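User: Predict the complex with fructose -6-phosphate.
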Amino acid sequence: MRIFCEKDYVSLSRRAADIIIGAVNKKPDCVLGLATGSTPIGVYDMLSSACAAGKVSFARVRTVNLDEYMGLAAGDPASYRAFMNEHLFRRIDIDIANTHIPDASAGDENIRCARYDALIESLGGVDLQLLGIGRNGHIGFNEPSPYFSVGTHEAELSQSTRRANAAFFGNDENAVPKSAITMGIGSIMKARSILLLASGEAKREALTRAVRGNVDPMVPASVLQLHGDVSVICDFQID
Ligand code: F6R
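Assistant: Here is the predicted structure with fructose -6-phosphate placed in the model:
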């Protein structure tokens, strides 16, 4: 595990964007695993600028996102599909048909989750997975639990996660959906390479427990200690 403690959010975003641009330039048809939330917005801005400047092309890239809220109407501006379109997909030269987000519409979620895992397999697996971290150590929407999840599944969101995500729902935590479809810990660990971002003092404790503590499903990100190719980028110091 490589840990880069950067001086601020811009430097964190720059380092992460450079790693992603390097991966895409090395393998133009790579599969990127992507995250939403506040943390990667700066990275997505830099990727969009680099694409506009001709420094990278996403024309052949395929993407799979980690998660999507359950129970939102198609096209809801708070959906992760809308987030990705706004912050990245509409701003780069990617073919939108090559962008994939878990299907959180009504119906049998077991079938839809199995289809998402099969889709990732059919793309050849994820080359580079981008992750944020929750204050409780979650990755994707894999919340602290007595065991590590395996594949894509429906997950109940903890109260602290709903509170943290209220900003995207008019600051009303009751408006944040109670569950989501998320890639599992097993799916994340299959990525060939992983990039974990943590920005702000509020993430220090979770990140420290994840990278310095025991591997423990109550700190889901700690499982990354068992992966052979992880880069962690934060904008604070950790001991
Ligand atoms: C988002 C996701 C979440 C976030 C995490 C941190 O797709 O899977 O695990 O990465 O909740 O969110 P921010 O970046 O908003 O602090």
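The chain has a mean pLDDT of 96.
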